[in-house]
Structures are given as structure tokens and as C-alpha cells.
Amino acid sequence: MSDILIVDDERDIRELIGDILEDEGFTTRLAGNSNDAMAEINKEPPALLILDIWLKDSKMDGIDILKAVKRDNPDVPVVIISGHGNIEIAVAAIRQGAYDFIEKPFNIDQLLVVIRRAMETSRLRRENATLKRGETRSAEMLGDSAGYRALIAQLDKVTKSNGRVMLTGPAGSGKEVAARYIHAKSNRSSAPFVTVNCAGVEPEMMEAMLFGRESAKRGIEPGLLEQAHGGVIYFDEVADMPLGTQSKILRVLVDQQFNRVGGSDKVRVDLRVISSTGRELQEEIAEGRFREELFHRLNVVPIAVPSLSERREDIPMLADYFIEQCHQSQGLPKRTLSDEAVALMQTMTWPGNVRQLKNLVERVLILGEGTGPIEARELPQESAPSEEEDGKVILSGTLATMPLREAREAFEREYLLTQINRFGGNISRTANFVGMERSALHRKLKSLGVVTSQKAGARVARVEDEGEEQIEQAS
Ligand SMILES: Nc1ncnc2c1ncn2[C@@H]1O[C@H](COP(=O)(O)OP(=O)(O)OP(=O)(O)O)[C@@H](O)[C@H]1O
Q1: Where is the Response regulatory domain (predicted)?
Q2: Least buried of 247, 264, 274, 462, by fewest C-beta within 10 Å?
């Protein structure tokens, strides 16, 4: 597909451009007014449209044609030809979705560079759209909890604007999924969504990757910014962007244009920028690791993505969804979750958030026992509470699956056994510490089936009906 439609009311110009492009191996069609142009487009949308802004003897001017094309054939790149001194109109055209503009009088090399780049970007965009179709399932966003619904309400508010969004939240909470949601619901949804993994790229490679490269030997290699033209660029973990690159990105945000590495021509891009961070950017600024000016430019609309522990109600729905995904993509058994397994999952700590849940589901399905419901014993038992959870009670897996009365008894038994052994079996000190009368503690221990005994010089506390020593030796 290398068919280019050239629309210009000056016959000499359209024929000149046509001849140049034919010499370069493109097929061209020509139109001298808006009626002919629209007829050609409706007959067969071209691979590229070169469009003069001012069209004499026409019902529509170039901007009207541009709008019609962007409405009906948004994938067709449009290069505007503008008369000298009409730069504002050309910039307005870019806002309407034109790919780029060239000013009359133009030289042939300049024209060819712009056209090749437009064709290349359009090809990448089609490829990206194909990839995206395959990816849409994984970008699906699920939930029904209050925290999730509040997030969706905020995301919905920003989809129709062009405002820069900063998504904050812990690792694996779904920041990228949220960014893809904004893109999919915006009027840029048919244009690319390009992720820049700021943490995963060597600082010295970052600029070539973002801005592209230009050299006599290898020609033009468009970078990610160019590939995202018209769409969304997502800076994942923006705090990891090297300081030098931060300054350059700041310039791009101010000027809306940049040079490729090794190139002298300015490249213009129309982008919506979404960034994410799991770190506190104010701290990074205070430490001199993040540029404050860039922060203010990127942080126009801050949106917090809740951690999984702030939206525990969503866990069953998410787990079912991941089971279905594993079944579809890897043929793993489509198991259900037992009530105990759900209760355990809803009380566990999830430092890795939704990603951790997804990985856990996959692991259980791979290693699991048969095809029946997933049982609590197949899930990892909670390790010691982390420091972050300081002061918060972490339920052990078994406790979480019991009715309150039993859970309370189990807790009291465990708690008192621990205290008695901590105080070397001394009931008075234990009673004093736990805040009970000595006699009341005795009665409590009895009702819980805990006996204390002197053995080998140390007092040990154990649960009577299990007949098993809970703690081998008190200190
Ligand atoms: N609401 C959701 N519904 C369905 N899947 C989700 C949801 N949130 C996250 N996921 C899945 O969890 C995984 C992690 O999500 P994502 O990559 O968006 O997190 P992140 O916050 O961007 O992580 P990081 O900060 O580590 O890059 C992905 O596989 C994603 O598909």
C-alpha cells in the first residue's frame, strides 16, 4: 500500500509533487478541489494524504477535509502543505490529527523525509493495533469494590481530556492497566499506546530509544515518541528515568518537538503523556533525583491506584478471572475456589498486589491437586508480618476461616500459651502482664483446656486435649 493522494489547487505544485513521488516508487493520485478529493478518498482511502490548506473553488478547505478523514479513516496519515506564514493554521491542523506539515516553498528532500516518516509511523501504528488486539484481554480491568469504583470514576473523568495523568500506587496494583483503560476510552484509542519502561533501560540507551536515531548508514530509526504519535506514551516508573533524559523530556513537553539522536531536523509529535510511580516523587525531588519542573508537568492529574489490600472484596472476582485466563491460554484446569481458600486469600498480605495474586493462581493451577476446588492448604501460609503492617493484626490462614467464637478461642489459647511461656510459666507475672486476676487467668486457662506443668526444671504450658506440648521449654 503505497498510494498517495495529493490535493492542491495549484496544478503545477500537485503535478510536481506527483512526479517526485512517482520517481521514488510511490503510486499517486491527484485532486485539485475538495469534491475530487473526497471522491478519491471515498473510492479508496489512500495510504497517505498530502493536503493543501487553502483550496480555491472548493466547498471544503483543507481543514474540513482533514476532519472528515480523521472521522472516517483515522488511520490515514495526513501531511499538510501550508503557505509561508500560516504556521498557526498548520499547528491547528496537527491538533486536528494531521501528522505533520510542510511549508511552501519546500525542498524535495524535506518533503521526502516527512512522507517516509509518515508512512513508517502509519505502518507501525497498524502493527501496534494488531498487537493490541491480541493484548486486550490482558489489559482488561476488573473489580467491584468501593476502592475500585472510585478509581474508575476518576479515570472516566480524564479519558476525554488530554491532561497528563500521574498514576501512583504500589508495584503490581494495576497502574499500567489503568493507563490502558484511559487510552482505550479516549479519542486516541485507534492510535498507539506505547510503554516506556524507565527502569528497564540502560541510561545510555534511553535517549536513542525515546527519540530515535538518524545516521547515513542506517537511515531513520524512529524512537518510541515518534511511534506513539497521535496516541499515548506511558512512562512506567518515571522516577527511574535518568536525570539527563528527564531534562530532554521536559523540553519535548514544552516544545512538542525534538531531534533524533544524530539528526538535525526537528520532529514534531502529538502525544498524550501518562506516567506512573511507585515511589514518592517529592522525596526523589528532595534527594535531587527527580526534576521538580518535570514533576509539575507530568503531575497535572494525580490518580492513586489502590493496593490489593485496600480492595480485598475484589479478590474472588480477580482470582476467578485469572483461573479462566490460565485455562484459556495454557489449558490449565478450570478449578473453583473453596470458601476457605477465598477467606484465606482475602486475609493474606499482598505486597505484590494483583500481579502476586495472578502469579499465585497460576502456580496453584500448575502444581495443584487434581481438578476439584482449590483448598486453603494449597495456598501459602502467612509468614511473619512485615514491618509495614506494624500495629495491625494479621490473621493467620486458619483463623480467617473460622466463625468468630472459635476464632476468638483459638486466638486466646495461642496468645495465653505464648505469654505463659514468655514468663517462664509464672502465672502471677503472666496475669499481671495480660491484665487479669490470677484466679481469673486460671479459670480462663482451664476453660480453654490449657494446663501448665513443671517439667525438667522449666514450666511448660500445653493444650490439655491435644496432649501435645505447645512449646518445648520455657526460658
Ligand atoms: N483491575 C485489574 N483487573 C484485571 N487484571 C489486573 C487488574 N489490575 C492489575 N491486573 C493485572 O495485574 C498485573 C499487574 O498489573 P500492572 O502491570 O498494570 O501493574 P503496575 O502497577 O503497572 O505494576 P508495576 O508498577 O510493577 O509496573 C497485570 O498482569 C495486569 O493485567
Answers
A1: 3-119
A2: 264
